[in-house]
């Protein structure tokens, strides 16, 4: 499968060229769930209204609350960055993979320098095994020769793939990095709400460093944490905040901190995204090329749920890319609202919503992923 780079910055929302055709009457929709997808959802609001006449409000509650709201039929649509497989899930709810983007590991360090972190180092930082920035493992990651992969891209930023669907590598370069890390404690900021971002992040750590992060993934970071959060060395040093904006805000005002969130939150709050190592020994940024290279190796089930290959040897893969699902109903009691939800799902996948802006990291699926999304959306509102 392949993915195209189709991303959207908030600042250009009003510039989308859309049809002025109006429906018979407007429908007001209410959605909630993953904060990860907020930049795209909010950016497309004006264009959706212009094209359809409908409007929506979206409350960033976290994936866990989005799932619960779908269970209790609160609102009209919901987003979750992790699959909803809970016992309370209603049989009428299904997943449609709509948005793809990277989780960035974001740091607040005084030096304006790139930082490189191997997967095991990341897992040790967030598990509390590594507590200072000048730890030998972090020094080793940042004082070495670093291989990087340069992909061939189209004029709009899409990664070019060969006949087998593999990304085309233009060249591999080597960068010699030297970074004297500060002798300061690492302040870890995690998501305190139930979050698909936490589910994916803890799943990634257990997948890339299972001997370090030896507990299963979970929407709750505290549940997935492999040690004792209340250990003396962790109290006050590993702290939680609510939502992607919340962790970015707290990390931005906390020197020597580290957190995880969608890349655009880091950009908005002046946090630096780390280069993350992969199984091939290369390091990649959370950009469109690295994410599409990783998601191209993912497997998609008939119900739309995606399984990731964290050990992929694709050289430039950024292995913290994720899919955000829209939770839809097979049958809406209010058919007009159901029709408007389907139109919203289709619009979020359309080029009208997603303009090329590769620096944000958001990508929209195409190829087999897009075909599956359309197939699933067609099941809604029957």
Automatic annotation (TrEMBL):
Pfam families: PBP_like_2. The keyword Transport applies. Keywords: Phosphate transport, Transport. GO terms for cellular component: ATP-binding cassette (ABC) transporter complex. GO terms for molecular function: phosphate ion binding. Residues 28-352 form the PBP domain. One of its GO terms (biological process) is phosphate ion transmembrane transport. Belongs to the PstS family. This is Unannotated protein.
